[in-house]
Write a structure and sequence with these properties.
Number of strands: 23
Radius of gyration: 22 Å
Number of helices: 15
Strand order of the largest sheet: 21-22-1-23
Bound molecules: uridine-diphosphate-N-acetylglucosamine
Structural class: alpha+beta
Helix content: 25-40%
Length: 456
Amino acid sequence: CALPIFAFFPLIFQTVNVFHGHTKNTNFRKNEVRTMEKFIVRHSEALHGTVRISGAKNAVLPILAACLLTEEPCTITNVPPLTDVMEMAELLEEFGAETSYDGLTETIRICSETLSNQQAAEKNACAMRASFLAAGPLLARCHQAALPLPGGCPIGSRPVDLHLKGFSIMGAVHKLEHGVVELSAKNGLRGKRVYLDFPSVGATENIMMAATLAKGTTTIENAAAEPEICDLADFLRKMGAEITGDGTDTIVIQGQKRLHGATHNVISDRIEAGTFMTAAAITGGDILLEQVRQEHLTPVIAKLTECNAKTEVTPTGLRVYRKGRLRPIQLKTMPYPGFPTDMQALFMSLAAVTKGTSVITETVFENRFMHAAELQRMGADIKIDSRSAIIEGVDSLTGTSVRATDLRAGAALILSALAARGETEISDIYHIERGYDRIEEKLRALGADIQRSKDS
Ligand code: UD1
């Protein structure tokens, strides 16, 4: 790789043009514009119809980062036009990659032939937490990387110590200067045994990517087993990497001299699917989800069944419906295959209108109950006791003004608003756009009363 020379070019306009010029999604605009918008949601009867689930945001982001591992072009399909995806593409361009997005086919092409720069400019490190996933590929291919230390998020402090521990065992050194983590591995990375104290998704992905170009064999123990890890491993194997054990707690990576370009279709988004499944349950509706991987939804299906929603695999997708009364929920978030933390807020919306006492325990993030206060404003009866929320179901919630405090919390407020009496205004919806592709269009097609409006 060439020495870091940051060749400035109009990143913002180029990316907007690339993403917006060809996209079928005419609503796709920059984050800054969207901060001024809100959703107006009115009580909606049972949702009915069919919804197509988009590609998984949490699979796309590491896969885009992995494109930095090769100088050859890569083509990724089933990529939704999300703000987070656009920001990751901008980041890759900062390093010298060329990207182009076709919204009609939801395909992104990335060529990282020359990486002229391995230093990311300081930007919104929290919104761009996934930017740290570029560290492993840059370190592996260019032997250096400098990325802003991601800040704390509303859901927790979200450190990267496990990522750094892995890189350090593999021979990298790092220092923190002015909020930027500078990493270098002068003699390249060496394959080693890396034990993770917690099965962190991001750390597993970063170390797995770094190990593909390291000398020798890397073994990641207590690795995360999320489906998005397996999708990344599938893509890396298409690039020529040798990886076994993904989807289990031990992943073994045999380092290669180089990787080549590849084409990959991203898995569907299990959290978006879970969101629409919960929407069917909360409104007593009947929704058919197309393009879902049912096997990735086992914990969500299990908990919805306990709540008295029904699921059925049909030749065209997964049908979710509810006819009887909801039953209270007892759940604890856990790393995969446990119940996903990203579905926790959505189930709290469900519990808020379910007669009886539900208990939801969050074990993955330390501060992921911000939505509880917003739900309380709508009339929910929720008490937080350390890592558990005790929810006494009420007959109905009432619409008011609430704020999306993070991505999944925002989606949970939409579901609550559909079930609430009257009208709910949800502000700060840019959080929601980070991870949901045209959510209001998809919900409207199912009969929901949801509009986008300017936020004064
Ligand atoms: C990913 C997902 C996010 C999901 C989360 C858990 C992406 C882009 N985001 O986030 O939607 O909610 O997995 O399923 O894929 N931790 C440390 N040190 C580290 C790394 C993590 O202490 O170095 C802690 C975190 O603070 C958190 C826990 O481990 O408490 C889980 O985090 P992690 O699995 O790393 O989540 P992300 O990869 O950030």
